[in-house]
Description:
By secondary structure, the protein is α/β, with parallel strands linked by helices. It folds into two domains: 5-116 and 260-325, D-Maltodextrin-Binding Protein, domain 2, CATH 3.40.190.10; 119-256 and 337-379, 3-Layer(aba) Sandwich (D-Maltodextrin-Binding Protein, domain 2), CATH 3.40.190.10. 47% of the residues lie in helices and 17% in strands. The chain is built from 16 helices and 16 strands. The chain has helices spanning 22-36, 47-60, 77-80, 96-100, 135-140, 142-147, 160-169, 185-199, 209-217, 231-238, 274-288, 290-300, 307-316, 320-330, 338-355, 360-379; strands spanning 13-17, 40-44, 66-70, 82-83, 103-104, 107-108, 111-116, 119-124, 151-154, 175-176, 179-180, 221-227, 242-245, 258-267, 303-304, 332-333. Strands 1, 2, 3, 4, 7, 14, 15 and 16 form an eight-stranded mixed beta sheet that branches. Helix 1 links the parallel strand 1 (13-17) and strand 2 (40-44). Helix 7 (160-169) packs across helix 8, helix 8 packs across helix 16 (360-379) and helix 15 packs antiparallel against helix 16. The protein is globular. 44% of the residues are buried. This is ABC transporter substrate-binding protein. One of its GO terms (cellular component) is ATP-binding cassette (ABC) transporter complex, substrate-binding subunit-containing. GO terms for molecular function: maltose binding. One of its GO terms (biological process) is maltose transport.
Amino acid sequence: MLLLAPQLCAADITIWYSHQSESFIEGLVSRFEQETATRVSLVQFEPEKIKAEIILGAQYGGVPDLIFVPSDFLGLYRQMQLEPIPEQWLSTELAQDARETALVDGSYWGVPIIQGNHLMLFYNKQYVANPATSWKSIRTSVTQFQQLHLMPVGWNYSDMYYLVPFLSAFNGRPIYGDLISLNTPAMVQALNFYHQLAQDNVVDGNCDYNCSQKLFIKGETAYAINGDWAYQDLKRELGDNLGVTLLPTVEGKVMHPMKSTFVFAIPEKSRDGSNKKEHIRHFLKFVQRKDNQEWVYQSHRLLPVDQKLFNQVVKQATGDELVILKQLQLAEQMPSLTAMAIAWQAMKKGYLRFKDGLSAEEAAAYMQQLAFTQQQRLQN
Length: 380
C-alpha cells in the first residue's frame, strides 16, 4: 500500500529508503538533526517494493522529498519523475567512478553517498574452520552439516541480484552496453546450476532475505551470502565467530557480484516554499561531508565515495576489511540505465516461470521477450 507524504507533514524533510542497514540511515539523519535542528521523517521499504512505490507515488501523488536507493534506479528517472541534481551540489571530492553512477543521459539524478553494495560469503567459525573456495567443496559438506542440523548456505534465493554472480561465472551479463542479453547459453547454465543447489539442499529455495539472515545469526546455517551492508550487523551478533571470504568458484570459474552506489535522489513535486529546497540542499551537502563519510565507515563499515577517504581506507585495511575490498575489486559495476531496470524485472518474471516448470531454455527466452516488449513500450 502506498504511503502518502501528508502522513509525515510535521517534518522539514521526508525520506523513503530501502537500505538494509536501518541503523546507518537513522544514525546519519540523527547527526544531521542534531547539528541543524531540521526535522527529518524516515520511511523504510523492503528493497523489492520501494521501486513500485516511488513510481506509483510519481503518478498519483504522495512522493517524499528525498529517496535513498541503489544507483541503478536512476535509469528510471522519467518513470520516477526525478529532478536533476545541480552539478555544484556534488562534492568536489566525489570519486569519479561513483560520480558516473549518478549520470544518466547527460544529467545527474542522484547524489552518491556510499559504494560497494556487493555480495560476499560469510561463515560461522563455530562450524567452519577453513572456508570453502568452491561450490563443489560446499556440496561435499552437505551431509556433514545436515548431521549438525544445519542448512549449508542461506541467501535471498528468489532475488535476482543473487543470481547474477552465478550468471557471471558462466561468462554472462544481464546487459552489454545498453543491450539486454538474457536469452543466452550462460543464462541457461546459471539457472540450472542455481536450481540444482536448492534441489540438493545446499540452500533453502523458499528462504527470503529476512529468513536467511535470521537463520545465520541463530547459528542454523554454516554460510550466508549477503552484502557488505550486512557486515556490521552480523559482526555485532556473531562477534569473533563471524568470518568473511570471497564468493566460491563455480566449476573453477570466479563469481563476479555486481556493485553500485547508494544515492539520494529528489522526486519531482511541488515545493512548499524555498525553505524546502534549502533543507534538501543542506542535507545533501551534509551527508557528503568528509567527517560524516568517515563516521559512516567507522560505524557501519560502508565504503565511502569520498576519493581521498576511500584511498585511506584501502591503505589502512586489515582482516575482514581486506576481504571486503578484494571482493569489491572482483565486482562489476551495475549500469544506471533503463535497460538494467528492465532486465531486473524480466529476470524476476522469467525466473518465476522457471520455478513453476518452464525449462531453463524456455525461461531465458521468456526473459528476453519480456525485456524486448517493455523496451518497445517505453520507446512508444
